[in-house]
Fold each of these.
Amino acid sequence: MGFKLTRSQFELAKFTLYLMIPISIMYYVGIDTDKKLDVPGFWPDPDTLNKVPKEKYQIQAELARMRAAKVEKRKRLEEKARELGITPESVNKKDDE
């Protein structure tokens, strides 16, 4: 006497298989990913990343640093423009023509 599989049992087995295979793969990949999928040096070291200032004095210090960098960049660009002979007057003359 053999085991006879009806159509409804077969469809139920297919459904179970189709449902469990992706869940099993996600479960396998999702557990202990630090060891299975570890690529040394992939993520940057947290010490080298930018830190968002949270305290008021940190925010003020960061704003002061940004302003100083902006002023320094402007001075550097103005100096370079002077070396190239670009002046506000020469720019205005070209606009008038």
Amino acid sequence: MNSAITSCEHPNPLRCDGVISSHEGDQGSKKDGQLKSPSSSHMAYSILDIPPWYLCIFLGIQHFLTALGGLVAIPLILAKDLCLQHDPLTQSYLISTIFFVSGICTLLQVFLGIRLPILQGGTFAFLGPSLAMLSLPTWKCPAWTLNASQVNTSSPEFTEEWQKRIRELQGAVLVASCVQMLVGFSGLIGFLMRFIGPLTIAPTISLMALPLFDSAGDDAGIHWGIAATTIFLIVLFSQYLKNISVPVPIYGREKKSHTSKFYLFQIFPVGSRMVIVAAGFVLLLMGIFGKIGAAFATIPTPVIGGMFLVMFGVITAVGISNLQYVDLNSSRNLFIFGFSIFCGLAIPNWVNKNPERLRTGILQLDQVIQVLLTTGMFVGGFLGFLLDNTIPGSLEERGLLAWNQVQEESEETTKALEVYGLPWGISTRFCTSSCAQYLPFWPREGKVGVRQLSLCPGTQKRGPGAPQTPGCEKAPSAPPPPSVLLAPPTMGGTLST
């Protein structure tokens, strides 16, 4: 679900080839009707391009298959703590639900959200606090649910056991969502980003996956032969064969045939919004047909374990890759990262073994403390944030200069306003509102650390004689608040409000 950042020098974004440049290693281009290797700097279809309908469907399915592992993994990991390890039918319901909801979120983001070609799916950041919450004594599964011979999946008693845990998680997610909306609408994230650097992000992301090694090892250990075969096939197709081209006969309109190179085991470099729309509808269809979710629920556990070993390893490496911006020859930085990672593993482990040491006499407070201290992401991220902002160090040493420089380079996104403008003229209508100008989250031209995006074309600087956009020429000027900032490319390149 990596997003792409526009980088078009052409005056008309609609006509720009390669308006999107993705992360290195995931790029490609078109030349002489052939898809080149991703080492090129252009994409086959940019964000505003509309491929033929059959290609949209094909490439949408490709995006779905790419995100499939991460989508299926979340309900399968939660199944054990929801007391559903012996209920594959309910597991299939959860898988179908995450497909359907991911499709809805994808369409909302493409049409009304950040409007970038991003496939929305579940996040592993959700797993840490969820598992910590379900590990509380109140929510531990009864012993009889662990015995397959005693579980009657159709009984009201069993249904209530897993549904009350689902309700608890749903309530926590709803409250967290309200806090997230408050942070976004208040513009607080613009202020916080001044203090959040690579040494905070690296341990936070890495500790999403590191505490899950136990679950991955247990699943793979049921049959290491099957797990090893799964790992071998994933590595073979995704790493060794990704640059191997296969000659494919192509027939043109004039009935002339020729051979074209086709990278069979490689993701097509496509950044078109319409392709993501197709992927969103594919997710909706996958969620509607329950048999598809049931098929994924019957995947053998060792296969899932092998997939987890690869997936969690990559997530851990993505977190560590944020350290490319900091000075790794600095003992300060090595101490902060190493201490944060180690405490993010050691403290939750100790709290799980000694929960009685943290009892204050107030049940609700005890639960909050235990959930926070058993979430490795929180412990490591908080320590990284605290130490990085209190231990003396230069901006260059902390990696903030290099990080901000990458963000400054992505200011070219303001040249393609059509990419980010809301549909149906919403941007133009609301840009002229005097109230909207003072909303902390409302994007406009400005520079607070990095340039903010403007959804109102009329507020952009124009040359002499250039026509003004109707409805925007009288927009009142206001000091730009620290609101919508371009997030660091290591976090996917999406927009944060």
